[in-house]
Amino acid sequence: MSNSSAILPPLIADLQAVAARQPDAVAVIDERSEMSYGSFTRLVSARAQALERAGLQRGDRVALIAENSAMFLVSAFAVWEAGGVLVTVYPSTAPADLAYTLRDASPVAALADAATVDAVRSALPASVPVAVIDVADFTCASFGRDRLPNPTDLREPLFMICYSSGTTSRPKAIMLSHTALHHGATAYARVWRFNPSDKAIVCMPMAWLYGLCTTAMSTLLAGGTVISLRRSAPALIASAVERHRATVITGVTTIFAKLVKYLEDRESADLSSLRFAVSGGEPRNEVAFQRFRDLVGVPVHDNFCSSECFPLITYDPFADPSPILGSAGRLVPGSELRIVSPVGADVPVGEVGEALARGTGLMLGYWNDAEETAAALTVDGWYRTKDLVRLDADGYVYVVGRLSDMIIRGGSNVSPAEVERVLRMHPAVRDATVIGLPDPVYGEEVVAAVVCAETHDFDAEGVRTFAKEQLASYKVPTRLVQVDHLPSNTTTGKVNRRQVAALIAEADPR
Prior knowledge:
By secondary structure, this protein is an alpha/beta fold. It has helices at 10-21, 37-53, 70-81, 95-105, 117-123, 178-191, 209-221, 234-244, 253-264, 286-296, 370-376, 416-424, 460-470, 497-507, and strands at residues 26-29, 34-36, 61-65, 85-88, 109-112, 130-132, 160-163, 173-176, 199-202, 225-228, 248-251, 276-280, 300-306, 309-314, 330-331, 335-340, 353-359, 365-366, 383-391, 397-402, 407-409, 412-414, 429-439, 443-452, 479-482. Helix 4 crosses helix 5 (117-123), helix 8 crosses helix 9 (253-264) and helix 9 crosses helix 10 (286-296).
C-alpha cells in the first residue's frame, strides 16, 4: 500500500475491498496475460509508491497516453492511490493535438506504452519525465515542479482531466471530481446488475470515460473481469467473447453495425455467453440492433450521457429486458434531466427540446477555460448537452439528434438521426449517414451517404420514394450517394461526419 494509504479515496478503498474478498479471482485479461485481483492491487500500490518516490505530490497532474491494457488500468489507479490527478489523452491523438494537449495540461510526468512513448516524448519538454507502463521494471525519473496550479475555486478537489474527441478545433479538457468517478462506476454497476461472474469486453478507449469508468471501473468494483482489447475490430471482439465467454459488451452504434456484418459472414461465431449489450455515443440503429439480436440472442440496450455529466439515461436490463424501440432508456437514480425550448422554458411531455443534465456526475468545468465552462453550464448548475430529446409519459427518453448536426433547410429543422433511421429501414440500405451541404436557394440540402446491402441493387429513386412515405418532404434527401463504407473516428469508433462529407464530394462532385 502506498504512503498515501491513510487518506485513500473511496474508489481505491472499494477496489482493495474487492481484492481482499476474492484475491485469486481474475480482474483483468488483455492480449498478453491475465491478472488476479490480488496481483492487480499489489501492482497498483507498488507503482503508486514508485510515483511517490519520484516526487509526486497530492494534486499533481500525471498524463496517461496509452492503448487499452491491464497496465493502463494499473497506471490509472496508481496515480489516484498516490494522490495524483489523472490526465487521459487518446493514444491516436495527432501530433499537433498531442503537443497542444500536453502543454495545456502541464503535467509533472507522463505515462506511455511502447506504442505511444516516442510521440509523447516528442510532444513534451525534456524536463518532463516519461515512464513506460508496459515494462516490468517500472521506474520514473524525478519530477520537476514547474507546472500550472490546479484551480482553487472548484466545488470539489480535482481528481481527473479527460480530453474529449469532440468536434471543436481543439480537444476539451473535462475536469472531474472523485465523487463523479466513484458515483459513475457504482451507479452503472448497480443499474446494469454487474456481479462477480460478469466478464466485460472493453473495446472503447480507456482514455474515454465510456471505456475507463462506465465499463472497466464499474466491472472491477462489482468484482467482475475486464477483458481489455486494444482495438474495436469485429474479429477481435467476436474472438474475445468466444474465447473468454464474455457476458457484457459496450460500444458505440457503429461498432454493433460492423459486428453484425462480420457475424453474418461467419455463421460459426458463438456469442451466446453474452447476457447484456449496450450502445451509446451515437443515435440508435434499430435495424442493425434487431439483426444483432437475431444473430446473438440478446438485445442492444442504450446509454445516453456525456463525459460532462454521467450517468444520465440508460436501461436496467431486469426492469426492461427489451429496450423500447427508439428510446435510450430512463433516468438513472442520482441524476436529473430537464428538456427545454430555445428560450430555456421546460417543454411539455412528448415535445422535443434540448436536454439539460445535472447530478452527482456533473463535471467541475473545463480545465483552463472559464469561457467554455460558462457557456456549457447554466447559472444554477445544469449542463447544456446540445442534444435534442423528448420524454414520453412513461419516462422513456428518445434522442432526436444533436443541435450541432441539425440541418436547416429553407428555415425548417431537419434532424439527421431521424432521416437515417428511415433510410435504414429500406432493405437495400445497410447503413446511412445524413449531412447538410450548402444550397444556394434553401441554405442547406439534405444529402445521404448510403452503404448498400450486398443482396440488393442500389436504386436511389426507389429509396427516395420510400423516404417520402415516412418523412415530411423537406426532410427527404435531395441526393443519395452510394459509398463503400462510412468512415469512423479513430478514437471512439463513431461515424466521422466530416470525412463523410469528403466521401460525398469525391463520389458525387457538384
